[in-house]
Specification:
Structural class: mainly beta
Helix content: 10-25%
Radius of gyration: 24 Å
Distance between the termini: 80 Å
Number of domains: 3
CATH class of the largest domain: Mainly Beta
CATH topology of the largest domain: Cathepsin D, subunit A, domain 1
Low-confidence stretches: 8-28
Shape: globular
Strand content: 35-45%
């Protein structure tokens, strides 16, 4: 006797069949990564990876999505016997710098990049090179900030997480950029921003864009800072915006920095600026440059408040203090330039990592015990931290 199915039952069977078939198809399309390798995010910026050049021992490079060229420091290039050819003059954050080129094969994890046009120039003493667009333009790259991992996928078979937020990307000079806007003082400024894993800021504005849009607005609290960059020293002005918007993603009350002058790359007028790790680290970020798109999957840091240093002292990877702001709690406590921080709250500062040490000084209203080495003496002070911005 034939089985009779109701119209509703037949419809339910059809829906379930399509769902199961869709899941099977997705499983068939989705492919595991070609490679997974560790990334050190403990400094927030830069992000460190291990790279081999022409089969060398691993060298400490940074992963920089906003670098048109991969680069190696002159010292390492000479030790490897790299033969340089014609060079060029480029603009870095601190001004112009000279770069020559050499052909080399790079390897990160098991991922090999052959015949890379590698820039040879003077770089920071804390890393030997930069891995830039040569990786991002040929692969799909996922940076998992929370777990310190980078996954490399084949673009033709990459299948994104359907729960991820997709944002369209524009590629200029091999570098991904997105449309973003910031709101402040009742107005909105919109432009194209590079995605920059070499920056520790949330958002950085080029000087012409900041000036055109009157950011920071008159009377707003600001904080000045400086840092070493390609080509010299870059100077910044920091202020808060009401929000930053990237596609459907909104970030409230962020700290936004702008180049203080038009010197160097901060004088660019084609782009508005950069989006950096202070926003990116709140996600598992996937760069799909071959298909001009990005994907964002939130992690535990998604809604972490945006803060800046509340002590008034500036220090880098050596934990040596290079600046003390006038009338800051650090100055009032007697800390000085060239003091070397050894402990925060009785814990060796190296155990925090650079980003963690700065986080320890971003707790409004908290007391922080600071131990420094001053020549042969040990000095201990207590800072009453206070939000400066």
């Amino acid at each position: 006797m034939p089985i009779q199915l109701s119209t509703a039952a037949m419809l339910l069977f059809f829906i379930l069949s399509r769902s199961v078939c869709g899941d099977i198809a997705s499983a068939q399309v989705a492919k595991p990564p070609l490679d997974v390798f560790p990334i050190d995010v403990s400094w927030l910026s830069p992000l460190f990876i291990e790279v081999r050049v022409n089969g060398s021992e691993p060298m400490r490079f940074i992963l920089d999505s906003a670098s048109t060229y991969s680069m190696i420091r002159k010292k390492e290039a000479e030790a490897l016997g790299l033969k340089t050819t014609a060079g060029t003059t480029l603009n870095g954050g601190g001004g112009e710098f000279r770069m020559d080129f050499a052909k080399a094969d790079l390897q990160v994890g098991i991922t090999k990049l052959s015949g890379v046009q590698l820039g040879v120039t003077d770089l920071s003493p804390v890393y030997a090179g930069i891995l830039g667009a040569d990786l991002f333009e040929t692969h799909v790259i996922t940076i998992d900030y929370e777990n310190g991992k980078v996954s490399v996928f084949e673009p033709s078979t990459f299948h994104p997480n359907p729960q991820a937020t997709q944002v369209p990307v524009n590629i200029r000079a091999r570098i991904p950029g997105v449309e973003a806007s910031l709101k402040f003082s009742g107005r909105t400024a919109t432009g194209e921003f590079r995605i920059d894993t070499g920056s520790g800021a949330a958002m950085t504005l080029h000087h012409p864009f900041a000036e055109q849009n009157s950011f920071p607005p008159p009377g707003a609290p600001t904080q000045s800072s400086q840092s070493q960059s390609l080509g010299g020293t870059a100077q910044w002005i920091k202020a808060r915006a009401a929000s930053v918007q990237i596609g459907p993603l909104q970030f409230d009350n962020p700290v936004v920095e702008s180049f203080a002058t038009s010197h160097g790359s901060g004088g660019g007028t084609v782009l508005a600026g950069m989006i950096g790790n202070e926003i990116l680290r709140r996600f598992r970020v996937t760069f799909d440059c071959p298909h001009q798109r990005m994907f964002f999957e939130p992690n535990a840091m998604r809604n972490k408040p945006f803060e800046v240093d509340m002590s008034g002292m500036g220090f880098g990877p050596s934990y040596k203090i290079f600046s003390v702001a006038r009338d800051s709690v650090a100055e009032i406590a007697g800390l000085k330039v060239d003091d070397v921080i050894t402990k925060l709250d009785s814990k060796p500062v190296e155990q925090y990592g650079l980003a963690g040490a700065h986080d320890q000084l971003m707790r409004d209203g908290a007391k922080c015990e600071v131990e420094v080495r001053r020549s042969e003496a040990v000095v201990r002070v207590t800072l009453q931290l206070k939000r400066l911005l």
